[in-house]
Write a structure and sequence with these properties.
Elements (H helix, E strand, L loop, with lengths): L2 E5 L3 H15 L2 E5 L2 H10 L4 E5 L2 E2 L5 E2 L1 H11 L5 E5 L9 E4 L5 H12 L3 H8 L3 E5 L13 E7 L2 E8 L7 H9 L4 E5 H25 L3 H19 L3 H18 L5 H10 L4 H16 L9 H16 L7 H4 L4 H6 L4 H19 L8 H6 L20 H21 L6 H11 L3 H11 L5
Parallel strand pairs: 1-2, 1-3, 3-6, 6-7
Antiparallel strand pairs: 4-5, 8-11, 9-10
Helix pairs in contact: 2-3, 7-8, 7-9, 8-9, 9-12, 10-11, 11-12, 11-17, 17-18, 17-19, 18-19
């Protein structure tokens, strides 16, 4: 923790500077209006920085060169303390910095940060709130958390954070769901423990996924939980070695079930009947149907087919990673967006999500080549902005296939949600009326030939 000394003849000015530096950057400062007391403290304490007005007027009305007197104390004591003079001082000294009168507080703070060599990362950390919110779903696969877990209670006097789960407690999905049933949507983690907890969540998620595959049990549910956790974490902390590892693990798990020898109808049943999130269901089903039509698209067989499946699964995983709300995921056209009651912020998010996801994918090491382009085009525009009114042929063939497949799957999920009878042929017929271009209709034809055995 850095410590500062602030000196001026005006207590109010001292407090203003001290409070600004405390609130904005958590720096602690001792403040003085008495020159002798300030000199004594400089000798006795170890300050990182002294801020002093150049001169003051004493009780008899004499002008005193205060900064020079304090600087002499620094030099006499052989200290290497940094020194900022507010005003002009005709002295050259290694650690001396001058700020002209009439400065603004934010300018002074920036100078202080530069002088003290505070890094961008440190500032980002300082600016973080003391407790960081984490969506409750992220705790589904966590046991024995490495830190205490809190809930927030909002009061008129400000937020209060109350401990709900102790470090090392034996928690599981069941216990977390109990909190969820009380309408709790997020937990709060002390910022000092946040990174460690995130790492623990990701590590445990991967372990659960590996175990589920080994045992052949509850793969869909664990897979869906991991899918959600990795997308949440990607949205919150961005690309890191760990988020990439979990994302890839989640993709691998999806691929493994899709390309297993199990029949299409049993895979469909599995995903529909299991307790999985909407975004997982849709991404999984898009990959599943893609896998069925891929051999007929003339994009290769054998290894190439496997590579294309990998591509598609990556695209399915990342394409809507920034839409964490089911309501937003269901908005697929400009018309639906115009007719919705979305906030301006939500509209911006929808309009930009394809482009944002495409940029994120560019930062993921060893992603299949070219998937950023398909992700950018997954709503039909070449720049990844907005939702379509009409479709064009000026996008990649894989993006065209993805658009048709996602539409198909969205319609399936809508039927299931409305508890309507699921008739795939009828859905495809309805789609034919909405697509006029041959390259899109061709995909509908391929879907019609998918064997549902
Ligand atoms: Fe999308």
């Amino acid at each position: 923790m850095r410590k500062l000394l602030i000196f001026s003849e005006d207590e109010k000015v001292n407090k203003l500077i001290r409070d600004y530096l405390k609130v904005e950057y958590t720096f602690d400062s001792d403040i003085f209006t008495d020159l002798e007391a300030a000199k004594e403290n400089i000798s006795a304490e170890c300050y990182d920085l002294i801020i002093s007005f150049e001169r003051i007027t004493d009780a008899e009305g004499r002008s005193i060169e205060a900064a020079k007197a304090l600087l002499n104390t620094v030099i006499d004591n052989d200290l290497e303390t940094n020194f900022v003079v507010l005003g002009d001082l005709d002295v050259v000294f290694g650690n001396l910095h001058k700020i002209a009168p009439g400065f603004k507080l934010d300018f002074l703070a920036r100078e202080v940060i530069n002088i003290l060599g505070v890094t961008r990362e440190e500032i980002a950390y300082i600016k973080k709130p003391d407790y960081i919110s984490v969506p409750i779903e992220n705790f589904y696969q966590l046991n024995e958390p490495c830190c205490d877990i809190f809930i927030r209670i909002s009061k008129k006097s400000g937020d209060q954070f109350v401990k709900r789960i102790n470090q090392g407690d034996d928690i599981d999905k069941e216990s977390i769901k109990k909190y969820q049933s009380m309408n709790l949507e997020e937990f709060f983690i002390p910022k000092d423990s946040y990174d460690e907890l995130m790492a623990q969540i990701l590590t445990q998620s991967v372990k659960k996924l590996v175990d589920a595959h080994k045992k052949g049990e509850s793969i869909m549910e664990v897979s869906s939980d991991t899918f959600e956790i990795s997308q949440n974490v990607l949205d919150e902390i961005g690309i890191s070695a760990q988020t990439v590892m979990v994302a890839k693990m989640s993709i691998k798990s999806m691929m493994k079930t899709i390309s297993s020898s199990t029949t299409m109808s049993s895979l469909l049943k599995d995903i529909i009947q299991n307790e999985t999130s909407y975004s997982f269901k849709r991404s999984y089903l898009v990959s599943l149907f893609f896998y069925q039509v891929l051999p007929n698209l003339g994009w290769g067989r054998g290894d190439q087919l496997q590579q294309n499946l990998e591509k598609v699964t990556f695209i399915s995983f990342f394409h809507d990673a920034f839409l964490r709300d089911e309501k937003l995921l269901k908005i697929m056209t400009k018309k639906q967006m115009d007719e919705s009651d979305l906030t301006d912020e939500e509209i911006v998010l929808i309009n930009e999500h394809a482009n944002k996801a495409s940029t994120v994918v560019q930062g993921v090491p060893q992603c299949p080549a070219g998937i950023d382009v398909i992700i950018r085009q997954h709503h039909g525009s070449t720049n990844g902005m907005g939702l379509p009114n009409n479709y064009t042929t000026s996008i990649s063939p894989m993006a065209i296939a993805f658009i048709v497949l996602e539409d198909f799957v969205t319609r399936i999920l809508e039927k299931l949600e409305n508890r309507e009878k699921l008739n795939l042929k009828e859905i495809l017929k309805g789609m034919e009326e909405d697509y006029r271009l041959p390259s899109y209709i061709k995909i509908i034809e391929h879907l019609r030939n998918v064997s549902m055995s």
